[in-house]
Design a protein that fits this description.
Length: 173
């Protein structure tokens, strides 16, 4: 009887440990475009310049702008340090409206397959929403999830996991 009780408690603890308090339905993205009458937040010096010269090679998107947004564990909140990256891609896409991107959401190896696919989708959708709030046409953006299927770094440790919790911006045409 004692063994059965211990096993039951162990199973309950295991199930409770696998649950998550993260709500995947509310994308926490803030509109900071200044369109509501207030001044735009942030400084101009924090934004990297983007080449919008029509003669410049735009096959790969803007030059000098990173393409990966990293996320905290079990989160799909776009962190403020990635605002300049998103601003740069938004300016490029608005100046090149024929261009299209795919935002690929990824997770680390922890968690179940279905949960990670949903979390990866929420990460790609959060980046999409941030771009559309800056004026990018939604038709230029496709948001997809790979969950934990395409890790950027192999291994089971915080260093590898941090590199795998990401959304990658890929220019498709």
């Amino acid at each position: 009887m004692l063994k059965r009780t211990i096993y039951s408690l162990a199973i309950v603890a295991l199930i409770a440990g696998c649950s998550s308090g993260t709500k995947l339905n509310d994308a926490p993205v803030t509109d900071r475009s200044g369109s509501a009458g207030g001044q735009q937040q942030g400084s101009a010096s924090a934004v990297a310049p983007v080449s919008i010269d029509p003669n410049a090679s735009t096959a790969q998107g803007p030059v000098g702008i990173e393409r990966i947004v990293y996320f905290d564990f079990d989160s799909y909140t776009v962190k403020p340090e990635f605002q300049a990256l998103i601003d740069g891609h938004a300016r490029f896409l608005k100046a090149n409206q024929q261009r299209r991107i795919s935002i690929e959401g990824h997770t680390d190896e922890r968690g179940g397959r279905e949960y990670n696919l949903a979390l990866g989708q929420k990460r790609s959708e959060a980046v999409r929403r941030a771009l559309t709030l800056l004026g990018v046409n939604d038709a230029q953006i496709e948001a997809v999830s790979f969950g934990k299927e395409k890790p950027a770094a192999q291994g089971s440790g915080e260093e590898a996991w941090a590199q795998n919790r990401r959304a990658e911006i890929r220019y498709t045409r």
